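Record Probable GTP-binding protein EngB, 204 aa.
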Amino acid sequence: MKITEAEFIISAVRPEQYPEDALPEFALAGRSNVGKSSLINRMIQRKNLARTSSQPGKTQQLNYYRVNQKLYFVDFPGYGYAKVSKVQREQFGQMIETFLGDREPLKMVLLIIDIRHAPSKDDCLMYKWLRHYNIPLTIVTTKADKIPKSQWQKHIKMIKETLEADPHDRVVLFSSETGLGRDELWEVLLSQMEETTENTVASE
Ligand SMILES: Nc1nc2c(ncn2[C@@H]2O[C@H](COP(=O)(O)OP(=O)(O)OP(=O)(O)O)[C@@H](O)[C@H]2O)c(=O)[nH]1
Ligand SMILES: [Mg+2]
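=>
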């Protein structure tokens, strides 16, 4: 996809701050430091629009990025960061739960998993939440450049097994470093937008 415009819109902590223009939203969930912000930057071909850091726990709010006046990426705070206080963790849980349970423009959640490691308990919990709320999801295994190509399929199998994922769940291999998976992921997002538009039209 050709990016003509990409801008940071808001760091939202409360639902009143979420954009009201009803453009489709794609949220990114995953552990702290897994590469969510880097993935957004790669998707929109901007070096550092979404703030990245080698220090985990940088993203603390829901950060909205608008692309081509057409859709939003919503960068979630990473979970599982040890130095975050218990209160912060609970606030985070509530914020995400409210969002997932009641966010009409949300079209899909991208569950971002480091291809090198088994999903954590929090990843598994997030996966179950998404299923529970019936939210379309795509598993994105990132940092693929960090292991040899010959091991990709073995790791993907292990990740799906740990998540107890549905065999039909889509998995996109990704690397923010090399750009692997960028075109495929754009196809997934754009076709999801078309599908939901058709459903809306059909039900009217
Ligand atoms: N080699 C490689 N490094 C990556 C990739 N994606 C992210 N990184 C690195 O991983 C670190 C964390 O990336 P971020 O994008 O900030 O991670 P995040 O998930 O947004 O982290 P939080 O905001 O703390 O939740 C940075 O040092 C990135 O350069 C990738 O695909 N390949
Ligand atoms: Mg981040």
